[in-house]
Amino acid sequence: MQDHHIEDIAKLLKTMSHPIRLKILCLLQNRELTVGDIHKEVRTTNANVSQHLSILRNQGIIACRKEANFIYNRISEGRVTELIKTMRELFCGQF
Fold first, then answer.
1. Do residues 95 and 89 make contact, with C-beta atoms less than 8 angstroms apart?
2. Which of 7, 48, 73, 74 has its CA 20 to 30 A from that of 67?
3. What is the pLDDT of residues 41-84, one digit of tens each?
4. Which range marks the domain in which residue 73 is found?
5. In the β-sheet with 33-34, what is the strand arrangement from edge to edge?
6. What is the pLDDT of residue 93?
7. C-alpha 41, offset from chain centre
């Protein structure tokens, strides 16, 4: 593995490693959700959810689309979805 690959992977894992961001990514694994939807599941403030979504968006991990008054968030990086699936299989026994 080349150094730039290692740096990119480390950056991605560091971004994902925060418990709230990891939970958000798990929630977004199979569907799009609004900030309000995520807020209900994560049980933190809308501002905190928005901050974490912003970090994930800035790293290119998630993308969003606006529909009427709602912003829907989704995982934009397929490798992240596969990584979460693998982590669930290894650590949670879920497929």
1. yes
2. 48
3. 999 998 999 999 999 999 999 999 999 999 999 999 889 999 99
4. 3-91
5. 33-34, 70-75, 62-67
6. 78
7. 13
Pairing of strands 62-67, 70-75: antiparallel
30-50 confidence digits (pLDDT tens): 999 999 999 999 999 989 999
Q: Measure the CA–CA gap between 11 and 79, rounded to whole angstroms.
A: 14
Q: Count how many domains the chain has.
A: 1
Predicted model pTM? 0.89
* CATH number of the domain bearing residue 44: 1.10.10.10
Q: What is the DSSP letter of 30?
A: S
Distance, CA of 49 to CA of 42 (rounded, Å): 8
